[in-house]
Amino acid sequence: NAGVTQTPKFQVLKTGQSMTLQCAQDMNHEYMSWYRQDPGMGLRLIHYSVGAGITDQGEVPNGYNVSRSTTEDFPLRLLSAAPSQTSVYFCASSDPPSGYTFGSGTRLTVV
Amino acid sequence: GEDVEQSLFLSVREGDSSVINCTYTDSSSTYLYWYKQEPGAGLQLLTYIFSNMDMKQDQRLTVLLNKKDKHLSLRIADTQTGDSAIYFCAEGYMEYGNKLVFGAGTILRVKS
Prior knowledge:
- The structure holds two protein chains of two kinds.
- By secondary structure, chain A is mainly β.
- In chain A, 0% of the residues lie in helices and 51% in strands.
- Chain A has no helices and eleven strands.
- Chain A has strands spanning 4-7, 10-13, 19-25, 31-37, 43-51, 54-57, 64-66, 76-78, 87-94, 100-102, 106-110.
- In chain A, strands 2, 4, 5, 6, 9, 10 and 11 form a seven-stranded mixed β-sheet that branches. Chain A has a four-stranded antiparallel β-sheet with strand order 1-3-8-7, with no helix packed on it.
- Chain A is globular.
- By secondary structure, chain B is an all-beta fold.
- Chain B is 0% helix and 58% strand.
- Chain B is built from no helices and eleven strands.
- Chain B has strands at residues 4-6, 9-13, 18-24, 31-37, 43-50, 55-58, 61-66, 71-76, 85-93, 99-102, 106-111.
- In chain B, the strands form two sheets. In chain B, strands 2, 4, 5, 9, 10 and 11 form a six-stranded mixed β-sheet that branches.
- The radius of gyration of chain B is 13 Å and the shape is globular.
- The N and C termini of chain B lie far apart (41 Å).
- Chain A binds chain B through residues 31, 33, 35, 40-45, 48-50, 56, 58, 90, 92, 94, 96-105, and chain B through 4, 30-31, 33, 35, 41-45, 48, 50, 88, 90, 92, 94, 96-105.
């Protein structure tokens, strides 16, 4: 049972490039979310989904897109990378009320 | 609005109890959570409490919730060096996909 799998673990992008962070879970959870973690700020919600075909914006959605075509996958797309998007990104899935299970994170640097 | 605050740093001696505190402003959350993050790792769910409960105990962990004062605490009994990590409290909102609003985290340092 793999839980929540994120790829890649590390990524360096140039300003203006686009990329997709992959997230997959094998727990059949309906709820999935993307968070970013910046020093001294805790984690902030980017986008979330309550089921296949349903997504909504979180606290800091600008510059990111998501889609949820299957229960298992919830990719996060950076449309045009900016240095302000340098962060650690965590994908998570949830079977409420037991809280979210987090992936191991993707460390993204935009230069 | 939603705001969760934690103290930045706590240092304790091995074998002592640790108490990590959290205050929040929005009382409409459904559940409150404690997560642990070790260096370079993701977040590990430690425990959670329903918002209409006062206390929950789970082995060495005790969670106390004071709804009137909007105060949440996590007590770790017999703290060990392996407990050194960052601890996050978070409010959970079931009606918004169980979204979590996190505090900035408390760094717990356990001295042997």
